[in-house]
Amino acid sequence: MAKTPHRRLTRDERVRIHTLYYQAGWQCPDIARFLGINYRTVARCIKGSVTPHRPRGSKGLLDTPTKSRLIAYATASGEQRIKPYAQLAAELGIHADPRTIRRVFKSERYYRRVATEKPWLGEIHKQKRLFWSNLAVTWPSLI
């Protein structure tokens, strides 16, 4: 089952939840409805402290401007698109594990696909295309 996207509550939202619960006497469902926040988030906030906890995990190696620069460089030309990710990063002076670079491209929704080749057009194909295009030009404008 996929996780739903979530965001962290700000300190002001936490203070507001605690104020509504402890001082105004509101219940969790009422607070959730009033603030437009999930019920479980409100309940978890009430059990915790007002000040938010530091997020777990290490800080990312690449910041947003660096990611954007990497994507822009990779999509600049056809030659750039076929280079390996690690080579693109090395040309920009970004020193990171190849898996990190791949994860950056995936998080920015940049995917690679194998390009298909155009089919060879023989004389018969060219004549049929020309006939169809001439026919399409003479169609009435109502269609």
From TrEMBL:
<dbReference type="Pfam" id="PF13384">
    <property type="entry name" value="HTH_23"/>
</dbReference>
<dbReference type="InterPro" id="IPR009057">
    <property type="entry name" value="Homeodomain-like_sf"/>
</dbReference>
<protein>
    <recommendedName>
        <fullName>Transposase Tc1-like domain-containing protein</fullName>
    </recommendedName>
</protein>
<dbReference type="Pfam" id="PF01498">
    <property type="entry name" value="HTH_Tnp_Tc3_2"/>
</dbReference>
<dbReference type="GO" id="GO:0006313">
    <property type="term" value="P:DNA transposition"/>
</dbReference>
<feature type="domain" description="Transposase Tc1-like">
    <location>
        <begin position="80"/>
        <end position="134"/>
    </location>
</feature>
<dbReference type="GO" id="GO:0003677">
    <property type="term" value="F:DNA binding"/>
</dbReference>
<dbReference type="GO" id="GO:0015074">
    <property type="term" value="P:DNA integration"/>
</dbReference>
<dbReference type="InterPro" id="IPR002492">
    <property type="entry name" value="Transposase_Tc1-like"/>
</dbReference>
